[in-house]
Amino acid sequence: MVMMLLANLTGIVISIFIGYIVFRFLSKSSLIHFLKKWWRSLEEKCYVYQFYKVPKFKEHMQENQLYRKVYVYLNSLPGMEDSDFTNLYSGNKSTEINLVLDSNQVVLDDFLGARLYWMNEETSSRSLILKIRKKDKRRILVPYLQHIHTVFDDIEQKRKEVRLFVNVETELQRNGRWRSIPFTHPATMDTVVMDTDLKNKIKSDLENFLKSKQYYHRLGRVWKRSYLLYGPSGTGKSTFIAAIAKFLHYDVYEFDLNKIADDSDLKFLMLQTSNKSLIVIEDLDRYLNAKSTTVSFPGISNFMDGIFSCCGEERVMVFTMNSKENLDPTIIRPGRVDVHIHFPLCDFSGFKILASSHLGLKDHKLFPQVEEIFQIGASLSPAEIGEIMISNRTSPNRAIKTVISALHSNNASRVARRLSGSVSGRGSEELDCKSGLFGRENTNPMKEFKNLYGFLRNKSSRKASIDFDAVERENQNPNPNPDPDPNSNSSHQS
Questions:
Q1: How far is it, in rounded angstroms, from Cα 396 to Cα 413?
Q2: Region for residue 46 given its phi and psi (left: phi exceeds 0; alpha: psi -120 to 50; beta: otherwise)
Q3: What is the rounded end-to-end Cα distance, in angstroms, of the chain?
Q4: Mean pLDDT to the nearest integer, 262-276
Q5: Which residue of 104, 381, 386, 477 is most buried, as measured by CB atoms within 10 A?
Q6: Minimal CA–CA distance to 228: which of 305, 281, 296, 167?
Q7: Crossing angle between the packed helical segments 2-27 and 30-44, to the nearest 10 degrees
Q8: 340-349 per-position pLDDT tens digit
Q9: Which pLDDT tens digit goes with each residue over 165-215?
Q10: How far apart are CA 141 and CA 147, in angstroms?
Q11: Which carries the bigger pLDDT value, residue 464 or residue 35?
Q12: Looking at 1-156, which runs of residues are DSSP E strands?
């Protein structure tokens, strides 16, 4: 009895094994594909379909724009890879390969739970044929066509060449007031040196903005977003603007207020900008604090949130400042500026990001010394540290030593100036990206004295772990330690 059970069990196992082998073989052959196609054909005959034709040309051989949009949309579908026959073409980039519809090819698409069929009909006049179940057409046809328009716009936006526009003097308006060139700045969101969490919040904010057309319209608000980037020179504000432009694939319109005659001229230039663009005014605080200006304070306020700021859809406005302390708070109130982003001088975290990107270093034996001098208040701009690393990129060890030397020099001069009372203390500021709220911490003179005492004590007790004479010899320069311009540095103290 036991032997019979074992024999039966063995037979079952062998049958299952053979069935598995046969299934694996058939799944890699054309038989399964044929059976699936036959079943799909049988299923389709059970439904009643409606057909829609999208010809390539209208009357008098005018091109049908809908045909182009549907064609681009279909070539972007993942279902193109599952078609029986698809053409392969090289794209604009050397590594890009495009899948393109072949004649009489059928492509499947799914939308809102319904299955749709597209066929590329190659006759005397090219056409795209849409086949849809009649029971689904009233529910999905209109939203499906709107979906095609949206996807096409997104694809075209990413394909287009981003351009930089600058305004010219009034006298040169024969060909319009804007001049443009291709915007080829290499900065991207990935290359920007910034706290990772903050960068992700900004990217998420921009992505949500792109999807919020209906939401803004439902609220009765203009579909635009505005950012204030503020901080000392060399902290990456302009580079971040370039990264935003690349991220959004928006043209950049940089307004030079010094080349604008008056408020009406500013409005005229705004009217000439296009939708899906980045409107930029740099160093706004410097212009507003100037004694003589051609564009008035109300003119700039109206530019930021008035009627003429609403002359277009899907705009992002960016304003940069070195400091916002001496500004009239109404110019940066909510509604005119949605998000405030602080670009501080470099700290140890920023230094490590720069060391990783510029020198390929994740860690180094000198990093603790760099962190120590940052902790006692030394600071340089990311641009200054980046330039030191670029100049010494063939020797990471020399680069870090030079950064330490520059930080020591900067810290000594900074503390000396503060103790002499020549420059007021600069507080620390923090960003809440979502709310745009800031906190301020006042500088304590006693804390400054302790920093100086710690700095001098640290310098006198430090072992000879850093050979600055060796740095001098390696740089082969009588003055190897880049000393930031004290005038430039003090002018950005808040």
A1: 26
A2: alpha
A3: 95
A4: 87
A5: 381
A6: 281
A7: 80
A8: 999 999 989 8
A9: 999 876 544 456 889 899 989 999 988 888 889 999 999 999 999 889 889
A10: 10
A11: 35
A12: 49-55, 87-90, 97-100, 106-111, 114-121, 127-133
H or E stretch covering 164: strand 163-167
Given the structure tokens 């690393």, which residue do they identify? Answer: 389
Long-range contact list for 384-390, CB < 8 A, 24+ apart? 384/234, 384/346, 384/482, 384/484, 385/346, 385/350, 385/351, 385/354, 386/193, 386/354, 386/358, 387/482, 388/482, 389/354, 389/355, 389/358, 389/359, 390/358
The answer to whether the CB of 91 falls within 8 A of the CB of 72 is no
Residue 39, pLDDT > 70, answer no
Sheet architecture: strand order including 315-321: 178-182, 163-167, 251-254, 277-281, 315-321, 224-230, 339-342
Q: Choose among 389, 386, 387, 409: nearest CA to 400.
A: 389
β-strands 339-342, 251-254 pairing: unpaired
User: Average per-residue pLDDT in the chain?
Assistant: 77
Q: What is the C-alpha to C-alpha distance for residues 293 and 129, in angstroms, rounded to an integer?
A: 61
CA gap 390, 355 in Å, rounded: 10
CA distances from 314 to 224, 310, 363 (A): 5, 10, 43
Can you tell me the distance from the alpha carbon of 422 to that of 115, in angstroms, rounded to the nearest whole number?
74
Pairing relationship of beta strands 339-342 and 224-230 according to DSSP bridges: parallel
